[in-house]
Amino acid sequence: MSRVVSVETGAGEARVHWYDAKAAWAVAALGHGAGGGIEARDLQALAAALPAAGVSVALVEQPWRVAGKKLAPAPRTLDVGWHGVWPELASAGVPVVSGGRSAGARVACRTAAGLGARAVLALSFPLHPPGRPEKSRKDELLGAGVPTLVVQGGNDPFGRPGEFPDGDFSLVEVPYGDHGFAVPKRAETGQEAALAGLTAAVREWLARLR
Q1: In the predicted model, what is the mean pLDDT of residues 182-197?
Q2: 169-178: long-range contacts at Cβ-Cβ below 8 A with a sequence spacing of 24 or more?
């Protein structure tokens, strides 16, 4: 069961869905992408798995989603929303790992150092628009300034694992996964196994941060 906290930000009302751990030593704050919300399979899998490892999960609904809009605003506005919810995310008094999927991962990278995040968890980092590798967003990823884990689908059109630059971050591949970590039925590993691998990799990385 989660508890929901509404937070007023400079970009409007946001919602934080808390999945609390007993005696939590950290918070994993995860934002959603530009095309969906906190119902994304990877966010839900982590919310279900991490509290047992002593990590509370906060799934953050950006104001544009709370307002019922279908299109995400400019990156600057997304950052304003993230800044606005940070006091709530930090209220537990334990280190906060800032993260999210896709556009949410970009927000986490851009704001981590300024907010004092312990680390960044970048799920399906959109390294470039599909088919436009020359439009690289690597500077956002490389500029996070804190320990960073990228979890990327092997068939993500926004950037396959082999396309990522060398840098001060770790990268874990979800075999056959697309941008939403969906795997085709013909894949050697099924959907449940893919998500289990994702959550296990994140748990191991978080344990090393402790």
Answers
A1: 88
A2: 169/122, 169/141, 169/142, 169/144, 170/205, 172/198, 172/201, 172/205, 174/198, 177/152, 177/153, 178/153
